[in-house]
Amino acid sequence: MQDVDKNIMEVVRRTVKEYLETLMNTERDVFIEENGGTKNGFYERTIKTKYGEIEDLSVPRDREGNFRTGIFDPYTRSIGIDELIISLYSKGISTRKASEILETVFHNRYSRSSISRITDATMEEVKRFQSRPLDSRYIAIFLDALFFFLRRDTVEKEPVIFAMGIRETGEYEILGFYLASKESHNTYVNVIKDLYDRGVREPLLFIADGIPKLDEEIRKIFPRADFQLCTIHASKNFESEVRETDKAAIDRQLKGIFLSEDKEDAIDKFNVFKSLWNGKYPRQVYNLERKLSYLLTYFEYPQSIRRSIHSNNIIERMNKEIRRRIKIIDSLPTEESALKIIYLRVAEMNEKWSHRVINGYFKCKDELMEMFSKRYP
Fold first, then answer.
1. What is the signed CA dihedral for 9, 10, 11, 14, rounded to 10 degrees?
2. Residue 338: which of 189, 168, 160, 171 has the closest Cα?
3. Is there a smaller number of Cβ atoms within 10 Å at the N or the C end of the chain?
4. C-alpha–C-alpha distance, residues 218 and 216, integer Å
5. What is the pLDDT of residues 300-311, one digit of tens each?
6. Considering only CA atoms, which of 290, 298, 245 is closest in space to residue 270?
7. pLDDT at residue 356 greater than cutoff 80
8. pLDDT (0 to 100) of residue 109
9. b/e per residue, 1-17, with b = 16+ CB within 10 A?
10. Cα dist. 312→65, 129, 267, 268, 348 in Å?
11. 88: how many CB neighbours lie within 10 A of its CB?
């Protein structure tokens, strides 16, 4: 077999392994919701296929031993073609490329319409995810956009807005993702309204980039919530408007401000920063000073979690991972295909993050609970 065929088969093998694990995790979640029980980690097994052997496949299990995946029978050593098509599609491979890969691997061409029909089942999962009820309380909710190329009449860059929360119990959770034709004030307003409609009532803090008047819209729906501007975005925006020779010094000083021990120290450092750069960059310094109160909101929160809530860094890392999956195609052919691809990655990450607690949470848990009690008596 030619090297190119081997490379394609290796991509398929890795892709199918990742998707099968995501699909089985989702299966287990639904089973436990409907039948009760608790998660109990994974066991490993090997699946032999026509395109290679999938080793160390992590199969989820429940503590009671009642869950069985429907992907394959207990003693099955191969999987069907439908799972392969779904996995190819879900990982960012267009129907045309999926069809070409299937022809290479199986010497049998599947039409785009056939592949699309097989993947339609994923849309039901997307709808359930987008409408599921949310918790009432969140320590923080992050909002940020990822841009990708989508074909409508023409191919253009469009955003998907992500909302990620830190639950009252400290775990991360992707609350929703929202496709929009452009990133705008109204787009974010609709996201905030959706979070409310699905059950969010007592958030402590929202973190977002500098969308004009977003803080005002948040207060209309969540009047007791705080607002934090992303310090990383603010720093990058400032540095994008200065000379190259000044960027390193400015970056170092801005990091010093936002990693200060307390708010008073941060303000003192900003005043030094202002005295150094106001003469050379008066407009940029003015814009930063104008936003300073929103850039330092996180100092009102326990010190042990401040590094996790002063920027959108956590959601940026998630965006980078999703972008890595999407970039292998020139453009997504439809809005529905974008929803499928993004959902399957989000579901996988939510499973991983359901066991991840924000750094420093247990040091300040009591303090956070007191903040909830005082703000929402």
1. 120
2. 160
3. C
4. 5
5. 999 999 999 999
6. 290
7. yes
8. 45
9. eeeeeeebbebbbebbb
10. 39, 23, 21, 24, 20
11. 24
How many Å apart are CA 45 and CA 65, to the nearest integer? 17
Q: In whole angstroms, what is the distance from residue 309 CA to residue 6 CA?
A: 45
Torsion sign, CA atoms 229, 231, 233, 235 = positive
Q: pLDDT by residue (tens digit) across 129-147?
A: 899 999 999 999 999 988 7
Q: What is the pTM of this model?
A: 0.72
- H-assigned helices in the chain: 3-35, 81-90, 95-106, 112-119, 121-131, 185-197, 214-221, 231-239, 244-258, 263-277, 282-290, 292-295, 306-309, 313-326, 335-353, 361-375
Q: Do the beta carbons of residue 231 and residue 311 sit within 8 Å?
A: yes
The total of other beta-carbon atoms located within 10 Å of residue 209's CB is 19
Amino acid identity, position 23 = L
Q: SS in 3 state form for 250-291?
A: HHHHHHHHHCCCCHHHHHHHHHHHHHHHCCCCHHHHHHHHHC
Alpha carbon distance 272, 36 (integer Å) = 58
Pairing of strands 202-208, 226-229: parallel
- Give the integer Cα–Cα distance in Å for 254 and 342: 34
The dihedral region occupied by 67, where left means phi > 0, alpha psi between -120 and 50, and beta the remainder, is: beta
Distance (Å) of CA 348 to CA 58, 162, 258, 302: 13, 15, 32, 30
Q: How far apart are CA 17 and CA 84, in angstroms?
A: 10
How many CA atoms within 13 Å lie on the side-chain side of 183? 19
